Amino acid sequence: MAGWWDAPVTVLKSVGDRRAEQFARLHIRTVGDLLRHYPRHYEDWSHPVSIASAPFGEPCCVRATVLTAPEERRVRPGMVLYRFSAGDGASRMTVTLFNNRFLAARIRPRKTYLFYGPVTGGFTRREMASPQIEEAPETGGLPRLRPVYRQTEGLSSHVIEGCVRQALEGLEREMPADPLPEALRRKEGLCSLKDALNRIHFPEDEAALEAARRRLVYEELLVLQLGMLTLKSRARGEAGARITEGYTAEFFARLPFSPTGAQRRAIEECLEDMASGRPMSRLIQGDVGSGKTAVAAGVIHAMVRNGWQAALMAPTEILAEQHVRSLSALLGDSVRVGLLTGSLPAAQKRETLAALASGELQLAVGTHALLSEGVRFARLGLVVTDEQHRFGVEQRARLAAKGENPHLLVMSATPIPRTLALILYGDLDVSVLDELPPGRTPVATYAVGSDKRERAYGYVRRHLDQGRQAYLVCPLVEESGGEDGLPAESDLASAVRMRDELQAGPFRGYRVGLLHGKMKPAEKEQVMTAFSAGDIGLLVATTVVEVGVDVPNAVLMVIENAERFGLAQLHQLRGRVGRGKWPSTCILISDARNEEARRRLRVMCETCDGFRIADEDLKLRGPGDFFGRRQHGLPSLRIADLAGGDMTLFRRAQDAARALIDEGFRPFGPGTEEWGDDPALPLLAEQVRRLFEQVGGQGLN
Ligand code: ADP
Ligand code: MG
Fold first, then answer.
1. In angstroms, what is the span from residue 609 Cα to ligand 1's centroid?
2. pTM (2 decimals)?
3. Are 146 and 42 contacting, i.e. CB atoms less than 8 angstroms apart?
4. Angle 595-606/610-621 helices, nearest 10 degrees?
5. How close is the Cα of 288 to the center of ligand 2, in Å?
6. pLDDT tens, 617-656?
7. Among all ligands shown, which has an atom nearest to the Cα of 548?
8. Three-class secondary structure of residue 686 per DSSP
9. Residue nearest to atom 22 of ligand 1 (CA)
């Protein structure tokens, strides 16, 4: 289907090689790419506001009558200003144009215009600099929303707009087939691609824009789901390792507790996968404290007892070391475990590497160091990654490449809304640990002002006196520098100072420890071991304790400057307590007045349910942040906003994707050209391939 759509942008008037290069920076090479470069937002000229009600500094459309003729002022060679004042009966403003003789000559006193741009200046002296100006109709505004594009140096939104107009004119002559099958479009009430493109760039009104968005979002989500579902269902060949027996009775007998129903179920699901002959790709999703480690241990145990090796990758050294401790405790001498981190002494590392390559070590636990070249396994059958959100699809794949199609288990402690999980982990099967180990009571959570700090410390001392332990998480220092323009104290400095002050003051006579990210691994290990053993009563820490640290005797979590943390992080931090048989408490210290911060703290006090917190988080932070930072290696979406209300459309698109796949639609396999009767399907397949090219179609396993 060569032609207009696939033609290089240089077919457009005024686009030469230089422009083409600029377009390439926006990943726009063809006319089709340009048409898929949707506006980021729109200038609304249809509802002008009065000068007094113009939001300060934000672009808007103002309707005003010119009161004075433009006055010319040469400020320096090559710079001429034109100034005039305009008013709307209630207030007036000064408008300034720079070097724009042409526009200035068209401005007539007593005529009414629409001005588009940001209004600035003081309350009494409003100003607009270089606004766009159009003659106003008798009343109101112009019936239009003007597109604003993501631009790049030398290539303004206006230039892009002009090119898009040309591109759309070309479509009038030569419109490629629509990638959405007509029957599907009719069923879902979606407009054609041509209408959608015309309206998304130049909508007549809000309704037209909404119709265009709906169609394009649906298409994008359908393409995404088709890709995810096919990758998931694709036979990924034979699994390297196949277990014949689960050894669960043996494993459960080793455990110091009896597993929850959810843990048993999750382990069984994994064992079934690993016995099937197909490589497992499974996500264990469980809230903090739900006992994911024991599940991993059971799965590793089975793999090792069947004569294979396993690898477990964690995001931090502290966590890797802790996994070695807890897995050794759960698995005892049934599995020989080695630790592999970047900071291991060279000699020890060599030894571990040799023992992995020979097969003598059965389980490697480590950080990213596991991914390095020199790490070889004799018979790697299972790859486990903990706290998945810190690893990308690509890293999972790299570890997996060290075995022959090994089984893959991903453990995620980040509760994400279920629907979002479907997208982020669409290539994985999911087991949910929806049951906490027995005897847990929710962590009582209080938000208090700093005036209550002394009381909080007293509360902590009483618990230390009873033999319990506590965490105190240090204030996060604001990144932008301190008050008075002085450089801000670093998080580290603040942690050190805090520990010293606490030790010297309110906690004199108690054992106060310090843990922060900049410590040497050996020091960290020492502190964590001392805290685990109960030799440290109060652990002052930066957010390194956020992930995975497990000391059941710790029952208090005090968080300073709690407003500086996000909800997910607060939830993780709080998850460090409430892990043993004692009731636990979390105290959030904050003097913040800001409404959003207060709401976060309120949510924390109201619930311990990770999924509810995740939902709130999503609402508060908005999609860009939540989805953007976590999507890791998944194709990025151009227009769909899953957190902003496109979820319903997502579900519809997902159903449609399933139906298409059931009918035999295979975007990756051969034979995609054979759907002769529906011209849409090959185009759809092409789009799926393009979207997944970005992440490497092979990578998602
Ligand atoms: P997470 O899911 O956050 O990784 P962990 O695996 O660290 O949770 O487990 C949290 C704590 O609960 C650990 O101290 C662990 O020993 C304990 N635990 C796990 N499963 C059970 C169970 N079935 N009964 C009692 N305690 C359990
Ligand atoms: Mg954990």
1. 16
2. 0.63
3. yes
4. 170
5. 7
6. 767 665 444 444 433 344 556 677 665 667 778 888 888 9
7. 2
8. helix
9. 437
